[in-house]
Amino acid sequence: MEQQWLDTLRFHHTGCLTQNIEKSKELYKNTLGFSNLSETFYISNQQVKVCFVEVAPAVFIELVEPQAETAFFAKILKSKNPFYHTGYFTGDFEKTLLELTGKGFYLVNRFNSEAFNNRLCAFLYTPQMQLIEIIAQPN
Questions:
Q1: Which residues contact 96 (CB under 8 A, 6 or more apart)?
Q2: What range does the domain containing 32 cover?
Q3: pTM (2 decimals)?
Q4: Exposure winner among 24, 36, 71, 87, fewest CB in 10 A?
Q5: Sheet holding 106-113, edge to edge
Q6: What's the pLDDT band for 2 if we cut at 50, 70, 90?
Q7: CA nearest 126: which of 101, 91, 99, 109?
Q8: What is the average pLDDT across 89-118?
Q9: Between vectors from CA 84 to CA 81 and to CA 89, what angle results, nearest 5°?
Q10: 29-67: per-residue pLDDT in tens?
Q11: In this structure, which long-range contacts are made by residues 112-121, counting pairs with CB atoms below 8 Å and at least 24 apart in sequence?
Q12: How many distinct structural domains can be found in the chain?
């Protein structure tokens, strides 16, 4: 079975840009009633603040507030469609990265994320230009 590495992928979150993470947290908690919110993390490599809102068991929306003006984030925010990536845990980070790039995915960057206890993460574009994030699964 050639694609056993896919068995290690597990959906974790959808990334959603916001201009104000505190107002967004308030909306998800007080208006929509989601009570399980993580602390807010600063991801230095990405220059963003993030917070995870659990919207179903082990399924999250990642609120992302840019801390620096970049063309990438500005363009997405102006599009009025702030949901811009999906994130997946993987049990074998290096193999998953190798398999995806071998299948035409484009590696944007790889980094250690403060939001995931400094575990390895990578952003990749699919061949259809959708942005995904893979995250080394905790042991």
A1: 5, 8, 9, 90, 134
A2: 4-136
A3: 0.88
A4: 71
A5: 41-43, 48-56, 59-66, 9-17, 83-90, 131-136, 119-125, 106-113
A6: low
A7: 101
A8: 95
A9: 150
A10: 999 999 999 999 999 988 899 999 999 999 999 999 999
A11: 112/45, 113/41, 113/43, 113/45, 114/41, 114/42, 114/43, 114/44, 115/38, 115/41, 115/43, 115/50, 115/52, 115/62, 120/93
A12: 1
* Residue appearing with tokens 């061949």: 127
Q: What are phi and psi of 38, to 5 degrees?
A: -75, 175
Contact yes or no for 17/84 (Cβ under 8 A): yes
**Domain at 23, CATH number:** 3.10.180.10
How confident is the model over 69-73, as a mean pLDDT?
A: 81
